Amino acid sequence: MSKMVAPRAAWKGFLKVGSVSCGVKIVGATSEASKVHFRILNRKDGLPVKSVYADEETGKLVDVEDQVKGFEVEKDEFLQIEPDDIKALKLTSKHTLEVGEFVSLDEIDTRYLEKPYYLIPADGAALEAYGVIRDAMKNKGVAARSCVVLYQRGREVLIQPYGKGMVMTELRNHNEMVSQDSVFDGLKTQKYDPELLEIAGMLIDKKVTTFDPSKFEDTYEDALIAMIDAKRKGKQPPKPAPKPKENVINLAEVLKKSLRQEGLGTPEKSAPPKRKTA
To answer: Which of 58, 215, 217, 251 is deepest in the core (most CB within 10 A)?
Structure first.
């Protein structure tokens, strides 16, 4: 049996809130180990090929020591950026996660959450301060905002209590986000029968459950594995999934059919009030 190897820390430094600080380590919370990975082969002989860098004009291969990053300032005009130029940048918070502010968990815009890491105490001496900071945030229902230098880049992060520890998540920059107004502006307010909303609500109630990522399925990855397995055995690959149908024409009938499939009856329309006669 293979021995489990503890994940390697991606960063080690200090978490600082006011005058309170503790040693912490950042460990990656995600892994690509279970993903299917492909190699590029030469179709003629089935052997792997490798990527190389070649001069666009001469076609000659360029050795690693002759390769340098370039920034295109004008069309076909490049500014060479040496590794020492990047190393010389004075990045703040290189070894300290200094908390600048706290935000309510309810106010976090999940669009900005990008990549999670586990934040753990660096050693036994850090346990008490680490626990106090974690539990204080948990009691207040807040997350801490900070920044850290990872892989030579300064990154805004959000730190949240999570079980016995904490999770630190890289945040996307505001400039990376597409404005929702530019996407949703064309959506017009629709008028629909209130009964449709009631039926849709009944369907939702029937399927409400707890958030359990262990039940998530990567259907594309599963299909890849099934296709590879079939090819190895000389069998026909599985048939592709049928294309989704066109837009629903009679929404009310489709919703009612869905209710019947879930074993639910459609809501009864209340009778209009009787008119009083003189």
So the answer is: 251
